């Protein structure tokens, strides 16, 4: 049997300094990943919020006005999942190609998820189309990717002829073609002269 002996040399001079430097660098890099996570969490928790009051936003396409959105307060929260909140309510008018208002909406709260292109309206949501059909609900979601608006909440739709109550609703974003999933009741509106 062959025995090998190794001579262990103590770290001296430059080798000790190099070993110590590498150890500190390795330890610091392990802690940096934790610090990076903490910093990202802080940034995503909206340390940097863009705040505006008495806001009016105009949206146009090829020089044609498409919408005017107003809000008493707007807070934009940048980060990985950038979103905008309308904590004190939001109003909107949506225009047709001829420049007239086709739809209007009001809600006591709104949140817009920029990257997902989803807008959620809550608390006394009211939507009116050019046919004078009115939607009332407590929650409405607009998916800009699909061009649909929908809710699973209770809805009331008032038309010149009927009042329809139900749960769950889906429509095109213009609120001209819609359906109620679970109709709970319908009342005919009789006009008396």
Describe the protein's topology.
Elements: H1 13-44, E1 50-61, E2 64-77, E3 83-86, E4 90-95, E5 101-107, E6 109-113, E7 118-129, E8 134-143, E9 148-158, E10 162-172, E11 178-188
Antiparallel strand pairs: 1-2, 2-3, 2-4, 3-6, 4-5, 5-7, 6-7, 7-8, 8-9, 9-10, 10-11
Task: Provide an overview of this structure.
The structure is a single chain. The chain is α+β, with helices and mostly antiparallel strands and 193 residues long. It has two domains: 34 residues; 139 residues, Lipopolysaccharide (LPS) transport protein A like domain (lipopolysaccharide transport protein A fold), CATH 2.60.450. It has one helix and eleven strands. The protein has a six-stranded antiparallel barrel. A hairpin with a 5-residue loop joins strand 10 and strand 11.
Find the CATH topology of the largest domain.
lipopolysaccharide transport protein A fold
- Termini, distance in Å? 118 Å
Molecular shape: globular
Helix fraction bin: 10-25%
Radius of gyration: 29 Å
Low-confidence stretches: 3-9
Helix and strand composition category:
alpha+beta
* Largest beta sheet: strand ordering: 2-3-6-7-5-4
What pattern of helices and strands is seen along the backbone? Answer: HEEEEEEEEEEE
CATH class of the largest domain equals Mainly Beta
Count of individual helical segments? 1
Please provide the count of β strands: 11
Characterize the largest beta sheet: strand count, sense, and whether it forms a barrel.
6 strands, antiparallel, barrel
Average pLDDT level: 81
Please indicate the count of domains: 2
Based on the coordinates given, report the CATH architecture of the largest domain: Sandwich
CATH H-level superfamily title of the largest domain: Lipopolysaccharide (LPS) transport protein A like domain
Determine the strand fraction and express it as a percent band.
over 45%
């Amino acid at each position: 049997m062959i025995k090998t002996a190794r001579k262990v040399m103590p770290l001296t001079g430059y080798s000790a300094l190099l070993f110590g430097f590498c150890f500190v660098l390795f330890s610091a890099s392990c802690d940096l990943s934790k610090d990076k996570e903490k910093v990202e969490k802080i940034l995503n928790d909206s340390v940097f919020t863009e705040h505006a009051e008495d806001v009016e936003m105009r949206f146009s396409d090829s020089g044609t006005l498409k919408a005017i959105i107003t809000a008493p307060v707007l807070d934009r929260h940048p980060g990985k999942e950038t979103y905008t909140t309308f904590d004190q309510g939001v109003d909107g008018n949506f225009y047709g190609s001829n420049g007239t208002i086709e739809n209007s909406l009001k809600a006591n709260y709104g949140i817009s998820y920029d990257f997902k292109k989803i807008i959620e309206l809550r608390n006394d949501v009211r939507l009116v189309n050019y046919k004078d059909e009115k939607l009332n609900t407590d929650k409405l979601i607009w998916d800009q990717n699909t061009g649909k608006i929908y809710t699973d909440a209770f809805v009331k739709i008032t038309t010149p002829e009927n009042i329809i109550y139900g749960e769950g609703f889906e429509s095109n974003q213009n609120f001209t073609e819609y359906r109620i999933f679970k109709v709970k009741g319908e009342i005919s509106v009789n006009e008396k002269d």
